[in-house]
Amino acid sequence: MAKDSEVTVHRTGLFNLPPKKHSSGRHRSKHAIAKEQKGKIGIKSNSQPKFKHLKKLARKNRSLQIRSNKIEKISEQKRKEGQTPINITLISLDEAFTSRKLVETFNLADEDAIIHLNEKRQIFHLAVPRFKQRYTFFCPDTNSIISTLDFLRVSDILLILWPIETTNLQIAHSRLLDVIYAHGSPPTFNLVSTLPTSGKQRDSTRKSLEKLMAPWAKDSRIYDLQSGSPLQILRQISTTRKVRSNLQKLRPYLIAENVQIVKNEEDVDSCTLLVSGYLNGAPLNINGLVHISGCGDFQLSQVVFENDPNPLKQSKKAEPMETLKIIKANPAKQTQLDSEIILDPLNTDQPEIDENVKLPEGTSEYQASWLIDDDYEDEDEEEESDESESAEDVNENTLHDKTENGFCAQMEDENYGEGDFHSVVESTTMDETIDFNDADVNDDHQKELFKKERENRQWPDEVEAPEGINTRDRFKRYRGLKSFRTSPWDPKENLTRDYARIYKIVNFKRTRKLALEAAKQSFHAVEEGDEQYCSPGAYVTLYISSTHSPLIVFGLLKNEHRMSTLNMILHRYPSFNLPVKNKEELLFQVGCRLFTANPVFSQHTNGQKFKMERFMPSSGAFCATVFAPITFPPSNVLVFRQCSPEKLQLIAKGIVLDSNPDRIILKRVRLSGHPFKVNKRTAVVRYMFFNREDIEWFKPVELYTHSGRHGRIKQAVGTHGLMKCVFDRPLSVQDSVLMNLYKRVFPKWTYNAEVRGRQFCISDEVDNQCEEECTGRKDKIRWDEFMDDE
């Protein structure tokens, strides 16, 4: 009876089963994990402690070994770097408490402290026997931003004295801090002269100080000179870990404390510069080159080691300066000052341009003739041409064979033969020689720049076809590209004459690696007793040959004196909002070098070709290319604009990318037209050309619109510039028809290393002048301004 009452359940057949729902359980599925990782490989780490199985005595011995290794590593580093004083830069933002007064405060804190003054050099030496440490204080003029940066580059510690009786900094001080933190600062100590003793007033003053320091030093400790002993600040400076920059690690440098000029009797125009100071950083190669900031590269004739004029323990008797050792340069091993290649005007052999251009099927020779470059030198549609440059004959643009030390001064000979190189550099020299006394001219010129930049943002690279001349003649140097990213462009084609003067590194990464390895191996060479290297930490006198002006001296790495194209990645500084035109003269601070040049701005993207920017971009990263000596990255870059002969303004910051002469920078021109009659995908376009011959000339170039339509020219209609075009999708009457043309541009040879130190903009009146156009003047250093009295 029970069996009859059981309910029979229907079971689906084999081919009617419903699909099971996929469930990965509590954990994530493989697809979710792969989607989240996006190809990244995770770090394999052991969850178990590595030394858990060791016993207590073994763990204790292991910790002792780690400690002894660290002590040995620190002592070895100190032995390599030498016992040089700690370099400290003082920046006083309090008018009532100057940097000189701060040095006196540190001196009076200890009765046994010994101070040596060098007021002309703004350098003060303080020896504190209690800490067995010496300090060198730099007190630069805060109105001179270049001298402040020079001291900052060679400093181990930065001391900033903040004001307590104000809630807002002066314009000059705020801009000075902007430049300092944009350049990169060493470990910083924030000081105040005094804080109120009352608890409430002290807290309110500290909060106002923190608010004042927030844009530059947020959440930083504040040291009070009155409540806290200055000796405790010096003690903490002594124990602070020194974070050296790449410039200080890999290059020797010397701060000039005593400078003398020895005239050369054989050559009246040159002299020998005697620079005395403490050698810091890496060992100095006597046969290498040195760079004097703002002056150039020079050779060394000899190095004289002298006794330390600022010892830790002062002897009772005044000891005269004694010569301990002299190292002279070997002329056979000395690096030559061949920064660029000297052209031979009698050698007229030119690389042969490969004219086998890939053309679309059915393209005739007449249609493809515009693709081949000729000797036409056009004018820039937005920039007035330089008559002297356009009239210059560049048929003697010769590339010489010179291969040395990984450098190749000539492009490869494959598929090249005889032919002429013609300058493709745009002539962007405008009538920018402006008199600052004529305010109306400056205002009109600045308004014109703002207008052009606004038009370039709204309609980038769009130009109108000229009515007076043929469009095919006006843009004969330009060519069309099927794809800006994938279409080929020969980097050796139509190079300017300046490219025959520079060097090209065949393998930049390998050459940079070898140069940095040689700098690191110099420490081992000093330990082995190599006489061509000078160990850091000694007080030496450098005999620099054939110089005209002294400043801070840096040692150069191998091949860093050779001229090439320097590419830098920059960002516009947020507080600067004025237009900067392409190829405008700017001041560059690149590593240890200070020079002026006219950069070419281009986009920083992936690919082999990069579009030129007519103005400095207002946001994002961009690339600036100049002719300058090779500088190996990593190196910081600061860019200033000269607002007047003695005033500067920070406009951009960044880093060095590489030195690649084959970087292709293309200037784009957009020819625009208007649809006259539209029939679905076919349209009659006007105002792009004004005669039938121009239409036939540019017929192979692709057309496109702002709405994303792509098309081509089918045929000319009539003789007054009308043309029939076919597009891939229906066209709207409100659309604009565009055609892209490209031409390669090159930087100008305007590199100038002889730049005089300039001051920063400090007042509202100067700010108004900064909004005016730059004068582009160049000032050279005079050696008598820095010479010490003998």
Please explain how this structure is put together:
With 790 residues, the chain is an alpha+beta fold. The chain is 21% helix and 26% strand. The protein contains 16 helices and 36 strands. The strands form six sheets. Strands 22, 23, 24, 25, 27, 28, 29 and 36 form an eight-stranded mixed sheet that branches. Strand 32 and strand 33 form a beta hairpin. The C terminus is likely disordered.
Secondary-structure topology with pairs:
Blueprint (H helix, E strand, L loop, with lengths): L1 H4 L24 H8 L18 H26 L4 E7 L6 H10 L5 E5 L4 E6 L4 E6 L6 H9 L3 E6 L8 H13 L4 E5 L6 H15 L8 E3 L5 H10 L6 H5 L2 E2 L3 E6 L7 E10 L3 E2 L3 E4 L3 E11 L16 E6 L36 H4 L18 H5 L11 E2 L2 E2 L30 H20 L3 E2 L7 H4 L29 E2 L2 H20 L5 E2 L4 E7 L7 E3 L7 E10 L13 E5 L2 E5 L2 E4 L5 E3 L9 E9 L6 E9 L2 E12 L5 E16 L2 E5 L5 H6 L5 E3 L4 E8 L4 E6 L9 E8 L14 E2 L3 H7 L20
Parallel strand pairs: 1-4, 1-5, 5-6, 6-7, 17-30, 26-30, 29-36
Antiparallel strand pairs: 2-3, 3-4, 8-10, 8-21, 9-10, 10-20, 11-19, 12-13, 12-21, 13-14, 13-20, 15-16, 16-18, 22-27, 22-29, 23-24, 23-28, 25-27, 28-29, 30-31, 30-35, 31-34, 32-33, 32-35, 33-34
Helix pairs in contact: 5-6
